[in-house]
NAD-dependent epimerase/dehydratase family protein (Microvirga tunisiensis), 335 residues
Amino acid sequence: MTAPILVTGAAGFIGYHVVQRLLADGHQVVGVDSFTPYYDVSLKEARFGNLTPHNTFLGESLDLSDAQATRDLFQHHRFEKVIHLAAQPGVRFVDPQPYAASNLMGFMNMLEACRHGEVRHLVYASSSSVYGANRKLPFSEHDIADHPISLYAATKKANEMMAHSYASLFGLPATGLRFFTVYGPWGRPDMAVYKFTHAIAEGREIQVANAGQVWRDFTYVDDIVEGIVRLVERVPVPDPAWNADLPDPAISPAPHRVYNIGNDSPEEVNDLIALIENALGKKAKRVDVPLPPGDVLETRADVTDLRRDVGFAPSTTLEEGVKRFVAWYRGYHGA
């Protein structure tokens, strides 16, 4: 019997879509989530509820910062592939403790479990936020990214370093994925597309940073999922081209890689708002605010490596993606 694939954060936005895709492709999946109240838990429960009827899906409530519970999970199941998407999200600083517990201790427990469980490939979520203070665009995996401007970004950069050390010390193959501004059906209510849509639909004000002159590489969730499922099958190996005298951050003498997954086509937030207005048939009530600490003016993904290695790069337009999201929003909220 084929070993099940473990997906952590299975009740989260991206995790939910990844599990759906894996089930549709015929895989057995074990999905875990801790259902933290960072946003409305009922949305997470609704996602999870859509997964549980599948007879090839086993869902569990589990906090990965609990080392013993994580070890028990790997003792009960034999995983060859792990897709680790569980994390405390959000670039705006509030309370540091959840970031440390989930993104650092939870990730360390996952690395240890994968090491002792002899996992063949760990694919884990990093973030475009690791590029931090970098100004050179598009953001490339070959550029040094050592100046995070949010605690969230710092924990994600730490994840990359931790995974690389386990790849180097123990030969654990690991691939980090730097996601760029993911949106789509069943999305996160704190993210711009959902937040703006919900407020405009209800006639409430929206806060618009820097008069909307902010550019994001909005990436539709189905494109993110396609990149994930392709990269799961591409197990990294040591790269003999790595040069210790001129180290390239994108390659390694260890079985570890990082990839951007983004649309490579930044859109101004003003254009996003206009698309939402058109889809809803309502005008936004705008309030201009300064760019919040931890945010950057522009992101753009260089997806050269992704396209070369798996023959794919995201391509869903923001116009099409917003239409799909608003259609889902209307159905879910009865709006």
Notes: The radius of gyration is 19 Å. The first helix runs from residue 13 to 24.
